[in-house]
Amino acid sequence: MPRIVTYNVHRCVGNDRRLDVARVAAVLAALKPDIVALQELDVGRRRTDRTDQAHEIARRLEMSHHFHAALEVEEERYGDAILTRYPERLVKVGALPGYDRIRALEPRGALWIEVEIDGRPVQIINTHLGLVPREQQLQAAHLAGPAWLEHARCQGPAILLGDFNATASSLVYRTLTQRLLPARQLAKRKQPTSTFPSQLPVLRIDHLFVSRGIEVHDVSAPFDPLTRVASDHLPLVMDFDLT
Q1: Which residues are bridge partners to 214 per DSSP?
Q2: Which CATH architecture has domain 3-242?
Q3: From CA 6, how far away is CA 28, in angstroms rounded?
Q4: Potential cystine with 135: which of 34, 63, 130, 223 (Cβ 3.0-4.6 Å)?
Q5: Using 50, 70 and 90 to split pLDDT, how confident is the model at 118?
């Protein structure tokens, strides 16, 4: 049964303020995922010892990976990645719209790959939305539109996942559930899925949305001594099958 994880790793700096890429990789290794969507990765940044965090985590998990820099300053990059054990190909990366009325908002983006599971193509889109509600709404509408979810190449089973910085009561959530189904509600076994803050998770702001053709078995946010400290988010895990 395939397993997919979305995880905001907070540039691999934990709640103890310690930079530890190996610890984040250990959290993921314990989960035994087949596909991983990561947000808030540093690549070549001075503040995190110029490590290519996407490459290093993928190396430790023995996975291939694609990274998209939402922010680039000279040789320093910051953004999101998808890692997988499956045969894969990059479909698209791109920026998401900002909100012009507020300056200096952090740039946001999305990353789309196609993986092959049992000979069938599955579309995987990873994203990290902004913090301002109007900004989030613009970004969710862009993802739901022809550039992404309504794109001609987004056919068959699809999973949209990431850190949406928005709860299930938000317009963002309602916008996306007009196109896809919320995985948490489809899970056969109900488990805790709050992911933030990791030390005392009370908010569900990391989500998985699935198309028809994805049968959701379990969705959970593992809460243990390691996940509580490795990042300010918990990982969100989904087990699924293709129908």
Answers
A1: 242
A2: 4-Layer Sandwich (3.60)
A3: 10
A4: 130
A5: very high
Residue 72 clears pLDDT 90, i.e. is over it: no
Q: Which residues pair with 97 in a beta bridge?
A: none
Residue in 99, 45, 49 with CA at minimum distance from that of residue 67: 45
Q: Indicate the Cα dihedral angle 39, 44, 48, 49, nearest 10°.
A: 150
Choice between 102 and 70, residue whose per-residue pLDDT is larger: 70
**CA-only gyration radius of the chain, Å:** 16
Residue ranges in 49-182 assigned as alpha helix (H)? 53-61, 133-144, 171-177
Q: pLDDT tens digits for 176-208?
A: 999 999 999 999 888 999 999 999 999 999 999
Region 20-44: what's the mean pLDDT?
98
Are the C-beta atoms of residues 116 and 88 closer than 8 Å to each other?
A: yes
> How many other CB atoms are found less than 10 A from the CB of residue 212?
11
**CA–CA separation, 86 and 64 (whole Å):** 8
CA distance 56 to 120: 28
- Neighbour-count burial of 133, counting CB atoms closer than 10 A to its CB (0-12 exposed, 13-18 middle, 19+ buried): middle
Q: Helix 53-61 vs helix 21-31: angle between axes, to the nearest 10 degrees?
A: 40
The full set of domain ranges for the chain reads: 3-242
Q: Is 134's pLDDT higher than 90?
A: yes
**What is the Cα–Cα distance from 138 to 117, expressed in whole angstroms?**
32
**DSSP 8-state code for residue 105:** P
